[in-house]
Amino acid sequence: MSIQQKKRPVVIGVTGGSGSGKTTVSNKIYDQLHGQAIQIINQDTYYNDQADMTMDERKAVNYDHPLSFDTDLLIKQLTDLRSNKAIEMPVYDYTQYTRSDKTVHVEPTDVIILEGILILDDERLRDLMDIKVYVDTDDDIRIIRRIQRDMVERGRSLDSIITQYLATVKPMYHQFVEPTKRYADIIVPEGGENQVAIDLLSTKIRDILVKRGHTELR
């Protein structure tokens, strides 16, 4: 095996319903592997470009359906990162409901955490992951977290959040997200509160890194 193959980035997929604690789990893994070159990529960044649509049309899109994502672009860019090639990652503007004209230059790192609600839905994407994690959290907790996040970070009103949750988020979760649990290598109950699972994941990732020749662990 060549040095380049040994140094291939380790890709960790972290999924679960909206508000399940995916970000918390991802950040805690990130913190435990602070001695490594590690980054988090969010699937939400890869929502489709909707610049050719009116604002009303953009707001009417079902953002919890697999077709709302530019999965082909995500697969291409993740494949490039795994091949140690840099990418120009898109930037999504949540206030405008479409992709920004800006991009972010991203270099490959030892560990890539891919986070998102539907990252296990596409077999091509699953095949690019070394470890697949499903964060399993109660529905009531998830909707409360979603309300807090969308009002503070995404400029949404309470009414719009609740309407969207009942119309698309909840039904799409049961139709598309929850069924992907069967593809997970590890299921983490209660998200970021499960420190035992996070410790085990971090240890496993370090083990993979060592086997691939990443000897600079700290």
Automatic annotation (TrEMBL):
How would you classify this enzyme at the top EC level?
transferase
Give the metabolic or biological pathway: Pyrimidine metabolism; UMP biosynthesis via salvage pathway; UMP from uridine: step 1/1; Pyrimidine metabolism; CTP biosynthesis via salvage pathway; CTP from cytidine: step 1/3
Q: Which residues form the signal peptide?
A: none
Q: Does the keyword Transferase apply?
A: yes
Where in the numbering of this chain does the Phosphoribulokinase/uridine kinase domain appear?
Answer: 11-197
Write out the entry's keywords from A to Z. Answer: ATP-binding, Cytoplasm, Kinase, Nucleotide-binding, Transferase
Name any one Pfam family assigned in the record: PRK
Superkingdom in the source lineage: Bacteria
Q: Any keyword ATP-binding? A: yes
Q: What is its main location?
A: cytoplasm
Residues involved in ATP binding: 16-23
A molecular function annotated in GO for this UniProt entry is: kinase activity
Reactions performed catalytically = uridine + ATP = UMP + ADP + H(+); cytidine + ATP = CMP + ADP + H(+)
Q: Can you say where in the cell this protein is located?
A: Cytoplasm
| Enzyme Commission code | 2.7.1.48
NCBIfam families linked to this entry: PRK05480.1, udk
Query: What family is reported?
Result: Belongs to the uridine kinase family.
Q: What is this protein called?
A: Uridine kinase
Organism for this UniProt entry? Limosilactobacillus caviae
Q: Which gene encodes it?
A: udk
